[in-house]
Amino acid sequence: MPDYIDPKEIEQKKIFLILATPGTIRQRNTDIIKEISGLGYHTVVITTNFPYSVLTKMYAQHGIPLDHVSFIDAVTRNSVGSAENIHGVVRFINNPANLTDLGIAVTEVLKEQSGKKVCIMYDSVSTMLIYLSSANISKFIHFVTNKLRLMDVSGVFLAVEKGLDPMLMSQLTTFVDNVVDTG
Question: CB under 8 Å to 150, separation ≥6 — which residues?
Fold first, then answer.
């Protein structure tokens, strides 16, 4: 498995945009989580792509210790109507378009993880286009990247290559420290 995250850069609290093909985005998700966990980080996965229950099964199958991962799930309640939060494990948001609740959840979960080596992984920027305009996604990613910098936390944003319009892509590349095209 190739390394997508430079250990020195994550230690410096850098923020990454990881690009993957539509056919490999799920594999990149697990590769990156495994890599970050292997570096001793607790990963907070903000998922707009796969439900928490699907990701936990996927991570377990790939040997990722689930005690190194927690979730902000923006798809389950949107799909099934209700789901109860599990403190320290998963926090559910009503739908991916609710950026206010998503922003509050990010802030609260980062406070809960205070004192740990933490990395946020956002899966996936591309999926947000189903629910929001590029302009709103850009504003939200700008908010999140600034929050991460202020709280001294590393971050990874996962997106489908060529799945973002050129303006959104150019804005995202200015918000992050490193763009990694995994092909």
Answer: none
